[in-house]
């Protein structure tokens, strides 16, 4: 009887001990840290009148978050090319806000999570606009920490370490080159749409002026005929 009681108490204690363990996931498998890579996106969106569009992008702490945008074309009456842009932290706090046709936003991420980017066409009540976006996140220095950890675990030689460091630097430079290339694409696209808009404007304005000139000539001829004719259809002079 005593042995049964001892077994019951032991099972109760084990059950309480297991229930008190934490069930939250760890940072990575095998005690390793989460991988911090870099990714970037570039695409165009069309915002109708008074419309707002929001996007979310994930970033780890101590990263560099960048956002570049440009308004390429605007339609409607009394159009305004200014775009209202805001970036918020994962906790919902406003990081930065901008009101311009072209913007470059770059800041250090202080917390891990999804950063919100909102683009609003509030200045146009009756017109749409197309906006080209290029955003992403990159990390400077995480390669060094990862390299030190690998050196302590695997004892890499100096040659491989030098090659790895060179490749990491080259990768960072490629990211910056890609950002400048995307901005050049934005500028080229904006110039293309401006050229099409000016071409259409010149054609419509020329057609309108031609119609006005023809109508003015017809009215002048009509009134001149009225001056030289009477009710009896005999010339006045």
Automatic annotation (TrEMBL):
It is a single-pass type I membrane protein. GO terms for cellular component: endoplasmic reticulum membrane. Keywords: Endoplasmic reticulum, Membrane, Signal, Transmembrane, Transmembrane helix. The chain crosses the membrane at residues 204-224. Residues 1-20 form the signal peptide. PANTHER family: TRANSMEMBRANE EMP24 DOMAIN-CONTAINING PROTEIN (PTHR22811). Belongs to the EMP24/GP25L family. This is GOLD domain-containing protein. It comes from Aldrovandia affinis.
């Amino acid at each position: 009887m005593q042995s049964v009681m001892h077994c019951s108490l032991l099972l109760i204690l084990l059950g309480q001990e297991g229930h008190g363990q934490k069930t939250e996931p760890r940072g990575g498998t095998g005690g390793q840290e989460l991988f911090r890579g870099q990714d970037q996106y570039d695409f165009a969106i069309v915002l109708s009148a008074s419309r707002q569009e929001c996007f979310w992008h994930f970033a780890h702490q101590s990263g560099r978050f960048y956002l570049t945008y440009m308004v390429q074309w605007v339609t409607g009456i009394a159009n305004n090319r200014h775009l209202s842009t805001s970036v918020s932290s994962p906790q919902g706090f406003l990081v930065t806000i901008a009101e311009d046709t072209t913007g470059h936003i770059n800041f250090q991420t202080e917390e891990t999570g999804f950063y919100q980017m909102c683009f609003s066409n509030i200045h146009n009540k009756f017109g749409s606009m197309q906006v080209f976006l290029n955003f992403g996140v990159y990390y400077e220095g995480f390669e060094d920490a990862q390299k030190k950890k690998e050196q302590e675990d695997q004892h890499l030689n100096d040659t491989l370490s030098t090659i790895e460091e060179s490749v990491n630097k080259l990768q960072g430079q490629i990211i910056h080159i890609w950002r400048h290339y995307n901005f050049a694409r934005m500028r080229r696209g904006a110039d293309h749409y401006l050229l099409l808009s000016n071409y259409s404007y010149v054609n419509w304005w020329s057609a309108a002026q031609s119609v006005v000139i023809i109508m003015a000539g017809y009215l002048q001829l009509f009134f001149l005929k009225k001056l030289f004719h009477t009710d009896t259809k005999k010339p006045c002079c």
